[in-house]
């Protein structure tokens, strides 16, 4: 068991102040039984957030910033790499952009909640435009919380891109691709805005007071490392717990506390049982600047005494992120 918890240390001031109000008894007990590995350090300016780097390391996909090959990994899982190769893949995420005079904001794509029928129809409508630039789109369903399509083309090869977690609910301008080929992709985004403006699916969504799709985001680029293989039955399973994401992005302290305490009552309670049964457990708690991975390494006698009389160790841990 490996639990990955993004936004455990939130960026917003309201949620950071809320750390002092958290009640996480199972995490507190875990922290008296496990120790942290060497921290992984990052920064809010990086294209790839730390929780994705931790996840990539666990799968053998670690890569340069902005080039963790998530899309190629999906293509491998779908058997597409046998035909198209392991490079030149990207995720295309349909999204809603809000245009302002000085910048462009992206609404959180989770809020679109596209149906499978809407997703396929939009993908088919956009396919011909992408094909003109040598990009093939594949509508697929692999259980992602946000609708992604796979794209393959030479222009996407080795193109650093910002994770969707960097731009969802944020201004996109600073995160747009800047390297070779990016002008072609920006032109495609402009074309899609015109195409989608009058698309019947958007007309129906607007009539139902739902957000429309008026652009797309490119992410998950990068090439698979040589010799990478899909996990087998003996590979430790990693589970990404995303429930802190929305509250942390919106700096909603009450919702963030509720989400954390739910994680503590469920996943962390199970992890505590596994530790007490001497079964393998890892817990990675991640923020923008630091990620700590906890494992069942015994503390020294002195450290156990310190923890017994210290403030709730979970609060100290989260403040340190």
Describe the structure.
By secondary structure, the protein is α+β, with helices and mostly antiparallel strands. It has a domain at 70-219. The chain has 14 helices and twelve strands. A hairpin with a 4-residue loop joins β5 (97-99) and β6 (104-106). α2 (25-31) runs parallel beside α12 (267-276), α6 (116-131) crosses α8 (182-197) and α11 (253-265) packs parallel to α12 (267-276). The longest helix is centred in the middle third of the chain and has 16 residues, at 116-131. The model has no long low-confidence stretch (mean pLDDT 87).
Write the layout of secondary structure elements.
Elements: E1 2-5, H1 13-18, H2 25-31, E2 35-36, E3 40-41, H3 50-59, H4 70-77, H5 81-84, E4 89-95, E5 97-99, E6 104-106, H6 116-131, E7 136-139, E8 149-152, H7 164-167, H8 182-197, H9 200-207, E9 215-219, E10 238-240, H10 245-249, H11 253-265, H12 267-276, E11 282-286, E12 290-295, H13 301-309, H14 313-320
Parallel strand pairs: 1-10, 1-11
Antiparallel strand pairs: 2-12, 3-12, 4-8, 4-9, 5-6, 7-8, 11-12
Helix content: 25-40%
Tell me the span between the first and last alpha carbons. Answer: 22 Å
- Which H/E pattern describes the elements? EHHEEHHHEEEHEEHHHEEHHHEEHH
The total strand number stands at: 12
Characterize the overall form. globular
* Overall residue-averaged pLDDT value: 87
Cα Rg: 21 Å
Question: Mind describing the biggest β-sheet?
Answer: 6 strands, mixed
pLDDT < 50 runs, ≥5 residues: none
Helix and strand content put the structural class at alpha+beta
